[in-house]
Amino acid sequence: MKYIICRMHLLNKLPGNSRKYNTQTSIFSLNNMAKIFIRYQFLPVFLSLLCFVPLHAQQAKIINQLAAKSKILALTFDACESESPAWFDEGILQYLVNNKIPCTIFLSGKFAIRNEKRLKEISNYPFIEFGNHTYHHYQHSEKLSKTGFMWELHATDSVIKNITGKAPKYFRFPGGNHNAQSLFRVKEAGLQTVHWSFASGDPDPNVTAKAIKDWVLLKAKPGNILIFHINGRGYKTAEILPGLVKSFKKKGFAFKKLSEGL
Ligand SMILES: [Zn+2]
Questions:
Q1: Which candidate among 17, 77, 158, 260 keeps its CA 20 to 30 Å from the CA of 120?
Q2: Domain, as residue range, for 32
């Protein structure tokens, strides 16, 4: 009897308690849901943004400095060809080869094809490596459609790999012109975007050789990525390069390919 009374007591209590719990303290109650929505109303906005902007796009970066902060410099050259035919600047190339100076040359696909024979020859030197600089060298390659831009990357990779036997790891936008989407696409193609620490100014025909040399010597800091042109548009580069390299070495700097410094 005592058991039956206790049982009834419990049965009477439980539904009420249970209702009270369910309606007032559950985090799923309307009241709490409203509070959560008001408090975290940014969440849906944030989540929908993530749907439209791929996470990788936020992580795709431009490298403009080597990893080490020691006295190392990366010597890089652009070998661009867009409208007019362009050839290797032999003054620069012979200096690099004769002195075994480590460097990275960014080739446009058109330039690589036009200079195929010479490119094949220099690809045998382990101290020279090659990067991708698009196929047509459009000044605003970042504005191409996804298909067009990916073609520029893949076609240039194939041309360089066919001639040199090595697929490029690094990419440089013509004129440095880029946007978040094109940066993401470079990453999607398995390349790293590498620009430069400061412009040398060598494609300006009005700047004197001394001015370029003094500027680069003054501006360069440990870990910097230097940029020059090896397609005939670095008007004074062949003239200043030996003196520049000598001065940097005197200051204790060493030169590395990008793949050795990144
Ligand atoms: Zn270029």
A1: 260
A2: 2-52
